[in-house]
Amino acid sequence: MTYYTGRDGALRLGGVTIAKVTEWSISASVDALRTTPLGHSNESYIAGNTDADGSATILYYIEGTVSAPEALVNKVINTGNAPSAPVTLTLIYGNRQIKFACIITQVAISCRTGDVMEARINYKVTDGFTVAMV
Fold first, then answer.
1. Residue ranges of domains in the chain, CATH in brackets
2. Which residues contact 26 (CB under 8 A, 6 or more apart)?
3. pLDDT (tens digit per residue) in 34-85
4. For the segment 61-71, what is each residue's pLDDT rounded down to a tens digit?
5. Residue 19, class by beta-carbon neighbours within 10 Å (0-12 exposed, 13-18 middle, 19+ buried)?
């Protein structure tokens, strides 16, 4: 029997593994559209639109001269007021992956004495999943 652990996880931006990720999550749902005709006493439904979002916590550090999480953080924290363009993220665990285009909706950078700085990102999946090897 095989179990997956956090040690098996990674996060890719485009096709490149980025930063050091301490956690990631994804949540997906589907709307249940009611199709019960008048006069029937039992409810019936069909599947409607899907929706998905998630988050990841990335360690904030410099590798060479580049900040590792910069490509994600700068989608929200940037100068000017250009809207955030979608990015392709891949969540990996073991030999499985979930790949999707998303918009980075929120970034929170935190720092505590004695800890490594972190950047927590939230994302909203757009146009469904490209790969879903769950």
1. 6-132 (2.30.110)
2. 52, 53, 54, 91, 98, 125
3. 999 999 999 999 999 999 999 999 887 776 666 667 777 777 777 666 767 8
4. 776 666 667 77
5. buried
Element (H, E) at 105: strand 96-110
Predicted model pTM: 0.81
Coil/strand/helix, residue 121: strand
**CB within 8 A of 109, min separation 6: which ones?**
60, 73, 77, 117, 118, 119, 120
- The Cα 40–Cα 77 span in angstroms is 53
